[in-house]
Amino acid sequence: MAIFNTLGEKPWLESTSGVGFEQTEEDYRPGKTALKFFLAVVSVVFFLFTITFLSRTQFADFQALAGEPWLPLENSNQLMINTGVILFASILLQLSVSLTKLSTNIRLSLFCAALVASLLFIFGQWQVWQLLNNNGYYVNSNPANSFFYLLTGMHALHLIGGLFAMFRMLYVLYRSKNSLKFERALQLATTYWHYLFFVWLALFFLLTSSTETFKTIAEICGF
Predict the structure, then answer these.
(1) What separation in angstroms does the CA of 116 have from each of 64, 132, 196?
(2) What pTM did the predictor assign?
(3) Structural domains of the chain ordered from first start
(4) CA 150, CA 147: separation in Å to the nearest integer?
(5) Which PROSITE patterns does this entry report, sorted A to Z (predicted)?
(6) 108-124 pLDDT, tens per residue?
C-alpha cells in the first residue's frame, strides 16, 4: 500500500547532516528508557508473586496441578502449544525488525502475523482456563488454582496491553505515515515480546511442577 512505502527506509543512514542523526537517537532514547523502567517494575511484581507462590506451596492445603496422572496439568500439551505460539510471535517480530532488506509489505505481513499469533496465544490460555473450570478446578477451591489463574491472567493482561500498543502503532502509521516512528516503536515492541516470552517460560515451569519439585525449590530458597 502506498502509505507504507517508506517503512523500510533508514533516514539515519543518509549523509545529510550529523544533526539529523543526533535528533533520531534522542527521540528514540526516552521510549527505550521508559520501556526499561517498565520492565523492571513488572519484573519486581512477578518476582514478588513468585516468592509468595513458592512460600504458599509449603502449606498442607496446597495441591499442585501436576505430578500425578489424574491432575489437570500433568498433560501440558495445550500449554506447550501456547508456548510455541508465543515463541512464534516473538520470532516474527524479530524478523520484521531485523530483515530490513525485505520489502515493506513482507515486513508488515510479519508484523501482522505476530499480532495474530499473540491473539491465538491468549485464546489458547483461555481454553486452559475453561478446561480447569469445567473439571472443577475453580479459582477458590485450591491455592494452586488461585495462583494459576492469577499468574497466567497477569501475563495475559500484559500481553493484551502490548497488543493494544501494537494496534495503535498501525493506526498512527496509517494516519501520519511516520515510518521512522513506527520503526522505533517496532523495536520496543519486539523487546517487550521477548520479555513476555521468557516470563511465560518461568511461569510454565512453576505452574506445571509437582509437589516434590516445589519442596526442592523451597529448600533451596530457605522456606
Answers:
(1) 32, 25, 16
(2) 0.85
(3) 18-221 (1.20.120.80)
(4) 5
(5) COX3
(6) 899 999 999 999 999 99
